[in-house]
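In response to a reviewer's request, we include the raw inputs and outputs for one of the modeled complexes. The two entities were modeled together in a single run.
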Amino acid sequence: MRLTIKNLTQTFGTTRVLNKLSLETSSVHALVLVGPSGGGKSTLLRILAGLDTPTSGTVTFDGTVLQPDEASLRIYRRTVGTVFQSYNLFPHLSARENLILPLVHVHGLNRDEAISRIEEPLRRFHLYEHASKRPAELSGGQNQRIAILRAMVVKPKRLFLDEPTSALDPEMTAEVLDMIESLKESGTDFVLVTHAMNFARRVADEIAFIGDGTALAHGPADIVFENPENPRVATFFEQVLR
Amino acid sequence: MSRSFAHLIVAVAVTSLLVLACFQVPGDWNWSGVWEYRQKFIFGWLVTLGLSLAALVLSVAIGLVVALFLGARNPLLEATGRIYVEIIRGTPLLVQLLLGFYVIANAVGLENRFVVGTLVLAAFSGAYMAEIFRGGLNAIPKTQRDSARAIGLTQWQSFRLVILPQAVRLVLPAIAGQLVSLIKDSSLLSVIAISELTLNAREVNSFTYSTLESYVPLAIGYLMLTLPLSATSRWLEASFRYER
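The model returned the following structure tokens for the whole complex.
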């Protein structure tokens, strides 16, 4: 994917969360957004995922501009997948029904087609034996992996992941990160917001450091991590990588 | 001890105490007079059953629609819902029945008192249902709506497939309580001369002068409606349960 963001501004009331943020990636498979809490990463991701409309500015994916009206955004959201920090599965449905719901109600498959489409991914990620359980009966890591599968089984153009491991303990974090890495190997494009710096560095084609509502640094992972020009970015990495 | 066995023991104990108390009442019990009028009890019970069932379905529908009004962004819709709820909850059902039948129904040319009675009862109960549903809908976290939007559901699909099923599970006990109240409140329909269970019991009382003998079957008649309702609600609650 090739992402171009021009002068993106987002205000909530009097708070300006994004301030004329501009960013232009080369052709990448994995773009990782890092930076301090409250710096605007999640706000940016929600705009990229078509969940919020910016106050001003434009977002272009592969030459197509995101239209800000709800009808266009809904069509757009059907072509991408989004995973949230707190997994957000539907608690009244089993894992299997969570996966089937978008296939049947949004993408027009019949039930049998949907069930056969999800079987292989469930097996591949060792979730098949848990498919009949409801979210409350699954671990945090299993829930998050089901949430990622729910976004994946509709065969999206790209995936947006908003701090997918922030609510998980280290062991569960590892299982979710492994899954994301294997998705990358199988050719899925994604934009990831994360605080897992080592993982970010390993998986990212490009990294953007979002702070103070703008992109303070951007480029290939090694360059951003090793030689950040911006002192604010350097201090941040010094603290979190210590 | 199993739960159902415990229920049985307590029920038997309470019934025995009541029967014992009845034997303390001075004078003789006269069941023969009341037995003669048993058809009236059966007829009245069936009328109450029919009225309650119709009002029950209607009040749930009214409750849902008004709950959506209460949560609407459009201020006119919100105001309509709010004023409806406040007027209905703030006035006695007795007044609503009398005004509904003699003024409003009269004005629109509606003469069938069964229909008017059912409508007023449903409107009354619907106001309470609306507040219950609104509470339930508001209790569903915003992240669920987000999640529904993210997978591309329309607003209506999100409501029908994600929000409503969770809200229904939350409000089920409160709704069941409200429905039990509705069945008992139907006894007030006697004031507009609907021949339901309470009116029939009062008539039997005035024919036979045996007050307690008329009212004990009345209590049993209502319990025969409310107990199955409570049991159904508990069964539904258990089968909708999705927490650990």
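As requested, we also summarize the result in words. Chain B has a mean pLDDT of 90. Chain B has one domain: 37-240.
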